[in-house]
């Protein structure tokens, strides 16, 4: 049986030239595509950092991937994971609830926690326009 395909990392992606690239919107008119390998029209970034190409923003479709999951009956954003733990960001807006769950306040009204992966369920990845 083949190994399962790992989930695509959360982040910003750009569709250009029939392919999906990692990258970013650089300005109101420009996007930058990133590649680990040399590609036609791409220039080297800093040593060891791959290659990049600027393209008109009007030529790309930009979207964001975000992974969410359920822990203790509430939805969280998955901020990171290891083989046995998941780092979660609270999506709710109730400070009392966050505190009752034992979440850590990282900055005002931004709560996170790291929990055993076995306690997390219903992980889904959502694609939204960026």
Description:
- It is a single chain.
- The longest helix is centred in the last third of the chain and has 6 residues, at 95-100.
- This protein folds into two domains: 11-64, no CATH class; 66-129, no CATH class.
- It has one helix and eleven strands; from the N terminus they run E-E-E-E-E-E-E-E-H-E-E-E.
- Strands 1, 2, 3, 4, 5, 6, 7, 8, 9, 10 and 11 form an eleven-stranded antiparallel sheet that branches.
- The chain has 130 residues and is mostly beta strands.
- Mean pLDDT is 91; it is low at 1-5.
- Helix content is 5%, strand content 55%.
- The chain is elongated.
Q: What is the count of β-strands?
A: 11
Range of strand content: over 45%
Helix-strand category? mainly beta
- Please indicate the count of domains: 2
- Major sheet details: 11 strands, antiparallel
Radius of gyration: 18 Å
Count of separate DSSP helical elements: 1
Overall mean pLDDT stands at: 91
Distance between the termini: 36 Å
State the oligomer: single chain
Shape: elongated
What is the string of helix and strand elements? EEEEEEEEHEEE
Helix fraction, binned, reads under 10%
Which ranges are low-confidence, i.e. pLDDT below 50, for 5 or more consecutive residues?
Answer: 1-5
